[in-house]
Amino acid sequence: MRTFLQVLSEDERAQVPDRSLRILDKTGVRVDTDRGRQALGEVGARVDESTKIVCCPRALVGESLELAPKEFTLGARRKGWDLHMNPGDCTLLADGEAIYVLDSETGDRRLGTPAHWLVATRLIDALDEIGVYWGMVAATDRGDTVPDYVAYLRDLFGNFSKHVQDAILRPELAPRLLEVLQVVFGAKDTIRREHPLSFLLCPHSPLVIEDTPTDAYLEVVGWDITVAVMTTPTMGATGPASLISTTVLANCQMLATLVLVQAAWPGALFMYASAPGVIDPRSGRYAGGAMEVALLSAAAIQMGRFYGLPVEAAGMGSTDQQIPSIQASYEGALNGLLPTLSWPGILVGRGLLGAMTLSLEQLLIDVEVFRMCRRIHEGICTDTGDWLEDVIAAVGPSGTYIGERSTAMSVHGGEWYINRLGMHDAFEDWDAAGRPTLVEEALGMVNQMLAGPRAVAA
Questions:
Q1: Does residue 415 lie in a domain region?
Q2: Distance between CA 96 and CA 93 in Å, rounded?
Q3: pLDDT in tens, 261-272
Q4: Got the DSSP string for 99-162?
Q5: Residues facing residue 348 across a β-bridge
């Protein structure tokens, strides 16, 4: 039986949509995009042009939920890497937009550059556990002109062969994106069928749908480009000061954006990608390592599953620490366990320290944590051949099972998780190897993977 986690009872879970609907109907959201307000008004939302406040009746939200497909496939350039949303699989998405990069040799923190972006992109393309791209480094010296954007897309599709999730920050970039997609993947019909790219859209908390990124998404309406809506209220700052109220607020923003998306293109592919966070009450800063992040992520996954929508969630590897360390690992592991056991379709896996610094070594450690969490999710198998009553009878009292054929078969069949990182030998073996640390081992694996052959796209 697989291990599934629920942090909300059935009654608590039922209250979240009910309270969300009341807020959307009575309080509403501010919709800054003119096109968005027009589309919402045309499907029955109440629009106040003087305040830009839009209120969505319950029935309209229900109709929009009915329109959103519950299963679809995210395509990839590499053969065999299409991701089927909602059948029960889970893949990692590399966390994105780090401003800094930790220098593995000196320990110094440096501003991210296109060279750092390229190394990180090649590494996540080589990691099988990561099935979706998000730019891990926001290269600070990359230009922001249209030609710069086209060059970025060229480098992206030239160095990453699995599914790409990215944001279009300005509407004028959308036509260039569509041109590049046609060069890489083929005609519009092919793009509509294979969904090789998904669009990341982040409403502003609390209760604001911004104009520029939303208008950028509206420019690609009609191309069946999946939109992953990442709502990010931070409890105690841009979200109210309780876990359940922050969950409700995130759900409100998710549903409001869903209504807008379906109003613009009925049947648009939509992912519930809520990623609420919390502040550190001592400083007011974002607290990546807080255990409440894991609880909020698990609650968001539960709500997305309630609506039957494909779910993308955050939390994997989240930490406040600024270097790879014991703290970074235990915070990342605990923050990763709850959302993994809640089992979204896509889990945002970190590799970031303190929310802003990329560490390639920490990325490898976080991936190993995900593998272990995934094994816990797989649970205890109780198929007919797993009870081994005949083996118990044959070995009898005072025997041993280490030489039994069933033991070897179980080892190769996945009954044990075989670690790929870390020290699992005797002290003498570790001592003879020069007493390597986990970070040193992870760095060695990073260098080995980057020096290896590149994946071949179809």
A1: no
A2: 9
A3: 999 999 999 999
A4: SEEE-TTT--EEE--HHHHHHHHHHHHH-TTEEEE--SB--TTS--SHHHHHHHHHHHHHH--S
A5: 93
